[in-house]
Write a structure and sequence with these properties.
The protein is an alpha/beta fold and about 300 residues long. It has two domains: about 120 residues, NAD(P)-binding Rossmann-like Domain (Rossmann fold, 3-Layer(aba) Sandwich), CATH 3.40.50; about 160 residues, NAD(P)-binding Rossmann-like Domain (Rossmann fold, 3-Layer(aba) Sandwich), CATH 3.40.50. The protein is elongated. The structure holds 3-phosphoglyceric acid. 3-phosphoglyceric acid (3PG) binds next to loops.
Amino acid sequence: MKVLIATDKPFAKIAVDGIRKEVEAAGFELALLEKYTEKQQLLDAVADADAIIIRSDIVDAEVIAAAKQLKIVVRAGAGYDNVDLLAATEAGVTVMNTPGQNANAVAELVMGLLVYAIRDFYKGNSGTELKGKKLGIHAYGNVGRNVARIAKGFGMEIYAYDAFCRDEDIKADSVEPTCSAKTLYQTCDIVSLHIPANAETKQSINAELLGLMPKGAVLVNSARKEVINEVELVQFMESHPDFKYVTDIMPGNHEEMMAKFPNRYFSTPKKMGAQTSEANINAGIAAAKQIVNFINKGIDCYRVNK
Ligand code: 3PG
């Protein structure tokens, strides 16, 4: 049984060692493809793999077709918009994620991006503070909850909107639920995005929504670039010189954003939210265990293509 780790953005070595331990203890073999530059390298590597552990790596119909022995793909992380679920299901391949395992890492990065933004990108000018500001968490999942937990320590007032989460569950964390996304944006000085990229959410963060935010607002994106209407964001920032956008997912129009808003826009060069040893260990080892349990016992917890 061959398990392939295929990660363009590699795990920390300690996480790979942990994965290897799990895989070899089950009597399986581990192969590693890291920092690949061509899709063909991935197509070649998956040819004899029974299981694959990926991150944001694209597993499309071509990759699935090239993986003739493939039984399971585990996305070591939360979002699985990078996997063609339909093609996987048609090929009889199970797809799983490892929800929550990298959530703290992403949440800590969100707070770092926020401090950076409101301290005027460390340019030496006088900034503002997070204490007392209203923070809106758009989607109250694992990352959103961790952002709320940490933001409380900063003394922020926290609101959340989640179409699928009960108000009681949000209130249980001393977070104020709002009845709509619009209300969240109307209420909050800062909004942190935690929505997945899907047919409903793509391009949903638009000028209309951002226009509801108060003066001097900040939007922080550690979710997906696809949820932003990039054309409208540029137009909105042009007409709202007080608005800041910080993101961990480089937009398609990064060069334009840099040129137009050098003092109000920042993107990490590569998605860094989940890039900590701890998150790599948590998500990587969870993925390895899920593969072993699935292959040996048929356990399909966290399957996303049912
Ligand atoms: C996720 O969906 O888990 C995060 O976006 C992290 O993605 P990454 O594993 O590619 O860093």
